[in-house]
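Onboarding guide, step 5: your first structure request.
Type a short instruction followed by the sequence, for example:

Predict the 3D structure of this protein.
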Amino acid sequence: MQAYTKKELKERIIGKLHRNFGREVSEASSAHMFKACALVLRDIMANRQLETEARIEKTEARQVHYLSLEFLMGRSLMKNAYNLNVLPALTAAIEDLGFSASDLFEAEPDAGLGNGGLGRLAACYLDSMTTLDIPAFGYSICYELGIFKQKIVDGQQVELADNWLDMGDAWLITKMDETEEVRFGGTIEDEWRPDGSHAAIHKGYTTVLAVPRDMEIAGYGTTHVNTLRLWDAKSATPLDMSLFSRGEYLKATQEKAMAETISKILYPEDNHYEGKSLRLKQQYFFVSATVQSIVKKHRKIYGTLRNFHEKHVIQINDTHPALVIPELMRILLDEEGYSWEDAWHIVSHTVAYTNHTVLAEALERWPQQLVSILLPRIWQLIVEISNRYQSDLNNFFHGDQSKVRNMAIVWDGEVRMANLCICACFSVNGVSALHSDILKREVFHDPYLRSPRQFQNVTNGIDHRRWLSQINPKLDALIRDCTGGDRYLLHPEALEKLLQYQNDTTVLDQLAAIKRENKARFAGWLAKETGIVLNPNAIFDVQVKRLHEYKRQLLNALHILYLYQKLQQDPDFLTVPHVFLFGAKAAPGYAVAKQIIRLIGSLSDQINQDPICKDKLQVVFLENYRVSLAEKLMPASELSEQISTAGKEASGTGNMKFMMNGALTIGTLDGANVEMHQQVGDENIFLFGLNADEVQHLKHHGYAPYEYYMHNADLKLVLDRLNGGFRDGVSYNDLTNRLLFGAGGPADEYLLLADFDSYRVAHNRVQTVYQNPRQWNQMALVNIAKSGIFAADRAIRDYADHIWKVKTRT
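The system replies with structure tokens like these:
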């Protein structure tokens, strides 16, 4: 693999400044310099990608196509330089040219093409697929604005546009010659040919162009390069000249504006018809363009689609890309002229489905009227798939309509996308052992009984090179010293060698010193950015994740309010000073989640202004939580809050990032916490709360949260204070009522009050252990040592071996 020197990189950067921006180094801005550096790395990756493509074509290797509506890539300059093994040389080159490398890395906007764990997982997996030399492609939408920037104004979340493409487009290679046409609306006419064959003729449709903008993905320690293809929506008719000539300028560009809306923003609000329509358009747009692109390249190489399923596997990340199923059927039936049986054989041996949720509201359902209007041919195919499937179900379950109804694809005016996936995909996997078990026992129990071998588990994993080695260099150095080098970067199981140092005082002291330094660095950054001063001697207790009621940020807030009330009664109550750090974005239309953010702000204002709490208790909400902020926070964190209601979190990946960076977990037996507990044992994790079976038992036998309120004096005081409000004048009786009496749904749906006491006891244990630094550091070391199993490389090998049937780098 070619090595690049500082001199070579300087020459290339200067060349880019001259040719692409018409600037001398002395005239270049930071933006020019960033883009020049990005273009230099992009060139290196593009050349390697062409070589990779040639190898794939020559060997006729099976390819993996990973479809996800989200890819939360974060920043790419440092990551790509790291993977290409040019980070030291690039840093030196930038400094030699008179710029600050650290400032330049910081200037890059996050590529916010995702909302949370789903998108970050996809990004980690793409990195691992490339590192393991798997021929793979990612596919999504080139959102102009991506996830919103969060601003907290008067304690409340305000969403601002996030125009990442201003600088982020330096990574993208536009390939106009590979543009695909996607059709919406219109009507379908049946045509019977003289030979007796049938054709479906699509008429009166609107065409939207899908323009590919490719982002090259470099693997670590390999010349293999894969591609993330992002589809940009463009109008086939950018301007109606007749309208423009008559002075109707806005109408003349209306078609262009409507087409480009498809790739404008991630997850438009869907609580109205227009929002639902746009979301459905987004999903079909990206899968149709993707399948057409894959098919064209395959046909060019092989001349037939008969072997399509032997050369390709399409992995859909949740149900958002599920329309790939009828779309591939459409191409095989309408364009290739295959029989239904032949087409279905190919589709059902090509597509695999990863489920990411057990929440009923998150299993997508589309109004059938909307599907039939927007996607008339796709609707016809879904109906045919549904009818055939329903017939099979009737036979298998001997006419038991209770089972057929639950598994039906089209039922009661809706199209159920998860059921479409179950019907068509050769593999269905959950993302943690507990999650996969719940899918088989509850969510998809009847499909599991019908086809048990279809269901598998692949526990999630994270890119440990980014989330440990790159963001925590001092810890990386300690690991290398203790484990004999950098083997763990490609073989994360080597982290277990750290276990031999559990009683090594020198190593434990080094680990503690690294954590103190990381805390000081994060505190310094936060003070510079926001003016907020953290107590570096306090425990950094962190809950950062998408704001949802089942993730129970509200439980954390209730416990903080309990601590505050105890401090008011006894200023010496807290034996360990505590800094609670929150980071979360609420979906723009999720009113309860936004109210919880406001509550955290009220708590922060109340506590941080009270002299009793000085250097004892502090609450901080980190505005605009994102990948680049997480990269600063994870190494500094000491306690990781993974406190979702048991049975609700599919897996989680933030829990793994904290674990790898030596934070201890306080959590329920939910998602991947279960497997973390299995790895580290009772003594190295702070468990609390009901388990998944106990949650179901309590709900089944009648959960009465008001009884907990009446019989727990501390809890009653907390909720009464919530009702009364805080110094900012805001009362939260709506949240209290939701917990005690419900609001159009069950009271305390996620069992905060049932788990409150257990959570409080677990926090008491945290305080006790934290006062024993040696024990705390031993626990941290064990967590790091046992975290290798949660590397994305392990997860991708599981997919490759058990689902995709492709070879990986050894």
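Each response can be followed by summary notes, for example: The radius of gyration is 27 Å.
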